Amino acid sequence: MQNPSGTSLSELGEFGLIKRLTQNIVLKNSGTIKGVGDDAAVLKFGEKYCIVTTDMLIEGVHFDLSYVPLKHLGYKSVVVNLSDVYAMNAQPKQITVSIAVSNRFTLEALDELYKGIKLACEKYGIDLVGGDTTSSVTGMLISITALGEAEPDEIVYRNTAKVNDLICVSGDLGAAYTGLQLLEREKLVFKTNPKMQPELTGNEYILERQLKPEARKDIIQSLKNIKVKPTSMIDISDGLSSELLHICTGSGVGCRIYEDKIPIAPETIKMAEEMNIDPTTCALNGGEDYELLFTVSLKDHDMIKENPGISPIGYITEANTGYNLIARSGQTAPLTAQGWNALLKNK
Amino acid sequence: MQNPSGTSLSELGEFGLIKRLTQNIVLKNSGTIKGVGDDAAVLKFGEKYCIVTTDMLIEGVHFDLSYVPLKHLGYKSVVVNLSDVYAMNAQPKQITVSIAVSNRFTLEALDELYKGIKLACEKYGIDLVGGDTTSSVTGMLISITALGEAEPDEIVYRNTAKVNDLICVSGDLGAAYTGLQLLEREKLVFKTNPKMQPELTGNEYILERQLKPEARKDIIQSLKNIKVKPTSMIDISDGLSSELLHICTGSGVGCRIYEDKIPIAPETIKMAEEMNIDPTTCALNGGEDYELLFTVSLKDHDMIKENPGISPIGYITEANTGYNLIARSGQTAPLTAQGWNALLKNK
Question: What is the value of pTM for the model shown?
């Protein structure tokens, strides 16, 4: 069935593969406003637009049940999808949840998973409206689709940034990645000596960012309150670099961001230094922070700077100036996408 | 993480598990018309209703790549979801496709899969609007969500059958199951002696029904043309018995169907007899036919009987008379759900 002399998928990478598989798709329905290529698809049902996004999480690739509690996993599985809907400047309303599990899992285990799923639904005001439940050959798989709603003129895409726009991020970056590194380190310690207790105290913030992230519903609401509509937006699931490059290549523009403006929490810096990783690298390439990266028109700068939860980190430039990071030293380095790549990770 | 003394999932079965996991779900959004519990969810966006359904297919559980061509698999993965949308008397419009593959698969293999996906989209006028692509630890996983559209008064649920309604099925039943049995038999022969060529000629019909099923868009259109709106409807993915019991228990009614009225193709009967299985058992419990099972008001009988693609097989009775099959011999037997159960199959 599979040609052993064919092209290996890791050569293409996730984005290359998606591009290849979705090329030549011609949209046929007038109700399909936006198909593949943003955080979510946009569909027209009557007056309102319906936003659809989907994510698949696989044990051993996206999560490790040796340190991820099932309830947290359920919560996070929902949140990562809601984050995609908010990144369209829309309100998530419903989800479907499909799970596949091997017979290693008990009903009580699934109850825990669903407790987390339902907690996220409760917190974000979402209805669980369907799904599929089946058995797997190995491990646990979770596939969630989220549906959201927006007025047609509210939707914000990723390919509409303009030259001179401010580049902003919500919250802080790199925490989820350092949290993951800590969990991996303690797992290794435990494997070597099962009597060792994991040293997690004092690191609650980065652990929570990894295990129980939140989607930035509050930022979307704040922007609405101050009547600032971003010119482009994306959520940060793969790391700041990768997402910013999506905005720039999609919009046909360049960018210039400043290392010293990238928001990084003290706990993240402390753990990164303890592990001998550059905190900026964690923020640029770490991923899984589920913060929002967006651009706003320069005229909105005054409104934005009042909000402590939003950091301007640079601005959009002409395409021919490239994608640049101005380091603390004053040196300019090209931004490259080294985001988390599920296709490469599992080689 | 998993309690070894917990409840095993196979004790509950798929429907028991779904019921357990989705209990206590309180719908919060006024736009959620129907959540868990039918072929698809029904959501309100503006004037129109949006129908959402999702299915997960897993290598080794739902398909066997040793005899399923990837292109057919892609086609079928789409069709099974569209079938759920038609079963709501709605028109499918968009799908999202998430796939996970191990590094055993090449790009060329995924191209084949997507050829089938795109062919189904082409044939049914569907837009592929999004998805997720990732790596798996083992094998291939496909999770598809389909979205459809309907006017609010067009939607047909499964829990609205009325006493005295006629019970009808489209097409013929049991073919997909005998097709699967044939493929499994020839696989076994091939394993024993790889020089043996599989004997598939003369059985094209049942093989196609298994490998490349179609969703009954035409039946939905026919019913519209003759202005017959079913009183309840479901698609037959798990076998006639299981689906009819869903309608009856959901509607709080009983049923009486006649063995000699159940439509079974000559090719299905021939193969069933060759394999020493009762053809009626194939139709009742085989599954994967993706025909429509629906009830219509008695007054519509004359309209229905003109359509050679629709077979009346019995009628709805009061709940206290139970669920009955009148055999060719005249004997009455209780109908039981022994549909295909993905949770039990992979023990």
Answer: 0.88
Same domain, A205 and A238: yes
Residue B342 has pLDDT above 70, yes or no: no
Are B214 and B107 in the same domain?
no
Q: What is the CA radius of gyration of chain B?
A: 20
Domain match, A257 and A181 both = yes
Average pLDDT over residues A52-60: 93
What are the b/e assignments for A61-94, b being 16+ CB within 10 Å?
bbbebebbebbbbbbbbbbbbbbbbbbbbbbbbb
Rounded to a whole number of angstroms, the distance from the CA of B119 to the nearest CA of chain A is 11
Could B54 and A98 be called an inter-chain contact, meaning their C-beta atoms sit closer than 8 Å?
yes
Residues A136-157, mean pLDDT to the nearest whole number: 92
Does one domain contain both B197 and B96? no
CATH of the domain at A47: 3.30.1330.10
Q: What is the DSSP letter of B237?
A: S
In a domain, A2, yes or no: no
Test A96 with B149 for CB contact under 8 angstroms.
Answer: no
What contacts B268, CB < 8 A, 6 or more positions away?
A: B172, B173, B174, B175, B178, B205, B206, B279, B282, B283
Q: Is the Cβ pair B137, A58 closer than 8 Å?
A: yes
**How many domains would you assign to chain A?**
2
Mutate to test the interface with A, among B20, B38, B54 (most CBs of A within 10 A): B54
* For range B107-121, the mean pLDDT: 91
* Strand (E) or helix (H) holding A141: strand A140-150
ipTM: 0.86
Are B136 and B174 contained in the same domain?
no
Which of A154, A182, A204 is the last residue in one of the domains?
A: A154
Q: State the best of B44, B140, B143 to mutate against chain A, taking most chain A CBs within 10 Å.
A: B143
Contacts of B129 in chain A (CB under 8 A): 27, 32, 34-36, 41, 43, 52
Q: Give the model's pLDDT for residue A5.
A: 61
**Contact between chains at A65 and B1 (C-beta distance less than 8 A):** yes
CATH classification at residue B315: 3.90.650.10
Co-location of A119 and A207 in the same domain = no
Is it the case that residue A46 has pLDDT exceeding 90? no
pLDDT average, residue stretch B35-45 = 76
pLDDT grade, residue A338 (50/70/90)? low
Interface contact flag, B343 A21, Cβ < 8 Å: no
Domain that holds residue A242: 166-342
